[in-house]
Write a structure and sequence with these properties.
Elements (H helix, E strand, L loop, with lengths): L4 E5 L5 H13 L7 H7 L3 H7 L5 E6 L2 E11 L2 E9 L8 H15 L5 E2 L1
Parallel strand pairs: 4-5
Antiparallel strand pairs: 1-2, 2-3, 3-4
Length: about 120
């Protein structure tokens, strides 16, 4: 199924869809989070827009819909994966691997030796 998924750099116009994917993916685990922690992992569209200034974000698209996302920031130690989420209805299909391939390609191109969570 991941063969019908395209990964690309996110655009500012994708912020609402990114926020939606994060909410879908983490929403099923809401009871495991404090309200404050849940707000951090499921930021609203405005916070997603602000994060574009912190580092690259990628989205995975399937059938024209955004079904996954990953974002990174550059830290002294290397690339920090800020968030990653896959819509529940397509989890387990290799989409996360495709997103991580994009992060790895970026790390290689920008000469970052470490990627961490």
């Amino acid at each position: 199924m991941s063969s019908d998924v395209t990964v690309r750099l996110a655009k500012l116009d994708d912020a609402a869809a990114i926020s939606k994917v994060l909410l879908e993916a983490f929403g099923v685990y809401r009871e495991n989070y404090t309200p404050e922690a849940f707000e951090i992992v499921t930021p609203p569209m405005g916070e997603i827009e602000r994060r574009f200034g912190d580092g690259p974000q990628w989205v995975a698209e399937r059938g024209g819909a955004i079904v996954g996302t990953v974002s990174v920031t550059t830290e002294p130690e290397g690339l920090y994966i800020r968030s990653m989420a896959i819509s529940p209805h397509v989890q387990g299909k290799g989409i996360g691997h495709k997103l991580m391939d994009a992060v790895n390609e970026y790390a290689d191109a920008s000469e970052h030796e470490r990627i961490f969570l």
